[in-house]
Amino acid sequence: MQSKEAILDQLYVLIRPYASEPIELCAETGLINEVGLDSVKVMELMTQIEDHFDISVPLNILPRVNSLGDLAEQLQQLLKDS
Amino acid sequence: MGLEATTTGNNLPLRAADFPNLAAALDYAALGRTGCNFYTSRGELYAVLTYSQLREQARGLARRLRGLGAARGARMVIVADTHPDFLRFFFACQYAGLVPVPLPIPHNPGSHKAYVAQIQAMTRGCQASLAVAPADYSELLADATEGLGLTFVGTSATYDTLPQQAGELSPMQVDELAYLQYTSGSTRFPRGVMITQRAVLNNLSGIITEGMDMRTTDRCVSWLPFYHDMGLVGLVLAPLASQLSVDYLGTREFAMRPRQWLSLMSRNKATISFSPPFGYELCNRRLREGEAETFDLSAWRVAGVGAETIRPQVLYDFAEALGPSGFDRKAFLACYGMAECSLAVSFAPLDGGLSVDHVDAEHLALLDHARPATDAVKERLSQFVNCGVPLSAFEVEVRNAAGDVVPERHIGVIHVRAPSVMSGYFNEPEITAETLSPDGWLNTGDIGYRVDDSIMITGRSKDLIIINGRNIWPQDLEQLAEQQPDVRPGDALAFAVPGAGGADVAVMVVQYRDNDSDKRAELIRRLQGLIHAEVGVDCHIELAPLHTLPRTSSGKLSRSKARQNYIDAHPLNQAGVQIERQATAVLSQKQAG
Fold first, then answer.
1. Out of 3.40.109.10, 2.60.40.10, 3.50.50.60, 3.40.50.12780, which CATH number does the structure's domain B22-257 have?
2. Phi and psi for B316 in degrees, rounded to 5?
3. I need a labelling partner for B504 at 20 to 30 A (CA). Which of B62, B93, B376, B474 fits?
4. Are strands B504-511 and B492-498 parallel, antiparallel or unpaired?
5. Which of B108, B526, B528 lies at the smallest CB-CB distance from A62?
6. Does B108 contact A at CB distance below 8 Å?
């Protein structure tokens, strides 16, 4: 099973191109308020995550995802179940 | 799995919405073999619901709803995911004598709180008795309906365990409501448009016959949300009321994999689909090298475009890129409408493609007169897409500020009157009176002009901001600013300006006293983050000194003046460039590459 840290490292690579400014990415970074994703880009990112991890991301997890760490935890759970 | 999509073509003669109510429309469609098909984001067919099955299931469910004892005409809110359950509940309401109210689904990370507030405002606003959400959203719905005193709240599975009440069903009749439609996701201004059975069926008949000339050989594809007027009336009710098969792709699934739309169109040789311009743009942006020829879009005869300002270039680019698929740019069908009219007001002529009116921009700005451009070299041009001829049930007038009807090619506010116009906003007599006159004329809030019988839209008099086909109220953006400890009520004005490609860009001017550049940058970041999280759009924030926001002659803050000041201070292209730079890097990277 992948550790949360390992998943986060992969997320940083996927998310980096979306960051509007050269900000430091960490588990506490806010996906919306700090990375600056609008709704269309969120979907683009989810597609990349699905393709990268080869999983299906149910979109109802999103309302409770605030930070990259939240996202990594959700993905960890999905990877465990898949 | 043995699932097979419903056929194109039917064993029934096409009837064009000539029914007294939606239940009767489904009763007739159920005699045929067509229906609805649902696909995953990877293009797998996961559910098929023939109209015959839909009728049977909706009637069974209607008996369970009857057993709950809600009064006739009571509202049932339905969290409207693109799923067979939405159709089952929507039509169960029709048979049970209840009014369905489609509600949006949350789409943004971290939006839990904002979404709960939105659903709560809508549920309270329509005084709902019943509520249903897909299992994935049941927790959200429970949070949103807590303390509102609803009779029953559940998922489709919990409704299915209720006992069925015996006896005859008594469907909603011609003068009763067909549904209640929220026109924007605003938490402060949830306005529920009341549409009667007579109104929606009248509009459906116009859409089916005059607008699209639907035939039994047609097949529709849609990824539009079921809670959106174009998605619900145009691509759920119109196919049903003309007994056509439809292939559905979820809206979020489309946003993730937009090319699935084109795959579905290809797979079943679909002939009709609609999208705001941004949908065509998104597809084009994601198209891969050499991929266009793998699609077969040669059967696509109605590529409807509406719901936001139509930017011709975006559509020309799409047609150009998809040329190898057999897509014909003549399929583009510009249309104009709004939830307050059920849906459609006008359609461009079929098989005509886009028609653009070029006018002298200077003359237009000075004299409110759309004079055709004569010398393209010397004049600055404005171009407006011809939104076509109103359906025959409509009377249309263009009126000036004094309320007088203006001649052809003169700019004014578009007013319409038709049997398909709403009865009013639910429980909002004052707002209704501002919009709808006692003799039935609806002030659309859209500004435009007429040429012959056609309508061109040039802007909006109301303050609505429309981004990616979504209606956004400026008050919602302003409220987020005013909630900040360092911003006071009356310190923020939000409005839309035309961005680089002509699409709306949201701008908010905020009065701010501190000159410290770090604090200023921090406030901008904070506001943009909040707006992303709660509203899901990019917004350009401009800070202004105290007491500089413009006011009307009566002393009220003026969004339209603030907008004009902003546009004057940022000549069009510069404003677009600046906004894009402040927005995010992704778009510009794509454009550069």
1. 3.40.50.12780
2. -60, -40
3. B376
4. antiparallel
5. B108
6. yes
